[in-house]
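Re-run with default settings, no changes from the original entry. Doing this only to confirm the output is reproducible before filing.
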Amino acid sequence: MYTGLAYLSDVCEGCGGETEFPLLGLKVLPKKGALLLWRNLDYEQQPDMRTLHAGLPLRGPSDGEKLAANFWVCAERFETYRTSTL
């Protein structure tokens, strides 16, 4: 239902690395400690194609690094699988 993107590092203005939503004409510059949250479904619970997004690359190797963590909020039960027994 929702996607969250937590930025773990800053990216300098003009260095690239934005999260772009092309169908919304929106680019978000990463700022350490910021959380970007969006709904993936419309109000009829159908995929909202406006939330199509991409993480843009940094412009050059001297522009630092972009660190982020994704998380997803699901409407239905999510089954996990054990890979080992402890």
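The chain has no helices and six strands. The chain has a mean pLDDT of 87.
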